[in-house]
Amino acid sequence: MSESSQSFYNHIAQTSDEPMGLEIDRAEGPFIYTTNGNKYVDLISGISVSSLGHRHPNVIKAIQAQLDRHLHVMVYGEFIQSPQSKFAQLLCDQLPATLDRVYFVNSGTESVEGALKLAKKFTGRNKFVAFHNSYHGDTHGSLSVTGRNVYRDPYQPLLPNVHFLDFNSDDKLERIDDTTAAVILEPIQGEGGIIPAQKEWLKKVRKRCDETGSLLIFDEIQTGFFRTGSLFAFQYYDVVPDILCLAKAMAGGMPMGAFVSSSKIFEVFKKDPPLNHVTTFGGHPVSCAAAYANLQTLLSDDFPQKASTIEQTARKILKGTGIVEVRGRGAMLGLQLESTNLTQKVVEDCFDKGLILGWTLHSSTLIRIAPPLIIDKDLLEESFQIILKAVQKII
Ligand code: PMP
């Protein structure tokens, strides 16, 4: 065992008894190289992060240029830092007029925390409506709106007054009422098993929020930045949220998150008291420089088409005995298999053949597929053939 791997097992806090334990040497494009000389195709993009592949040259160049200017200079919101301003402008240029102000943070869960606080302060209410099987992060606020008891129970009490409804069901939408601060949902549930919202249902949720003065928060931490075909999933659904949570693929592999809303809603963060929501590192200049290059690159090519090709190729190749369905949109896909045993064995077999596949937190019969959007067609087809052969062999 290498020194590095000994330290990993002895000193890095572990999150399970069975970490994947790949010892990374480097990563480039769709590939990850390990210190023992193996090469893997990254079919989950570090869980929906490296949409442009690893170390995209434009992102690396932007990071290097910013390294030569400055790193952290002051806590968030005080100094004018051009990487932040430039990126906020570019991002808002892509969004409807009601999403014209960005609060930068460092991660997905922080963006959800910020969104919840913003909704409480703006509405003066404290009730939240969330959905079964959702995942919004692992800090206390985001865990409070995460719809899976097995993850919540060890940390009770969480935020009070959170009500969970069934995703895609009209049944209890009247529970969204005039005491509700916000409704939070993922337009496509990720950890819940790659479950897309139904368009008409989402419109009903929007309508109910409008009727009751509740804010609608879309957690697009996983669906954002062309992962599902459109820049953001809400554009496909044609339903505009009041607060949009972003992270993951935002900064080309650098840590970053944001919650985006209107100038009117964000007014409440300025006073009573001033500085009521601040962060030291949110909007780090290197992350913002990377995010600008990342978004500019994403906008300069036909990424909706690339995401759609990934989906079509998956649907064409991945079928047959053992495969229940391919779910999802664009490059956010779930391969539903017949049993937990088959799923585990397929993931292991593919891993032995150099494919990194993902799991989801709430489902044991689903393989997550989220390749870098830059993956070429041959490599994609080859990878899917490996998965198909694994299923055929093991079934
Ligand atoms: N929301 C969603 C939909 C996510 O998929 C995730 C991460 N899997 C998060 C929130 C939390 O993001 P982070 O891990 O950056 O805190």
Structure description:
The protein has 395 residues and is of the alpha/beta class. The chain has two domains: 3-55 and 302-394, Alpha-Beta Complex (Aspartate Aminotransferase, domain 1); 58-299, Aspartate Aminotransferase, domain 2 (3-Layer(aba) Sandwich), CATH 3.40.640.10. The chain has 14 helices and 17 strands. The chain has helices spanning 3-11, 45-48, 57-67, 82-93, 108-123, 140-144, 149-152, 199-212, 233-237, 263-266, 285-299, 303-317, 340-352, 377-394, and strands spanning 24-28, 31-34, 39-42, 101-105, 127-131, 162-165, 180-185, 188-189, 195-196, 215-219, 243-246, 257-261, 323-329, 332-337, 355-356, 358-360, 363-369. α12 (303-317) packs parallel to α14 (377-394). The chain is globular, with a radius of gyration of 21 Å. 4'-deoxy-4'-aminopyridoxal-5'-phosphate binds next to α5.
Key descriptive features of the protein:
17 strands; Aspartate Aminotransferase, domain 2; binds 4'-deoxy-4'-aminopyridoxal-5'-phosphate; globular; seven-stranded mixed β-sheet; four-stranded mixed β-sheet; alpha/beta; 395 residues; Aspartate Aminotransferase, domain 1; 2 domains
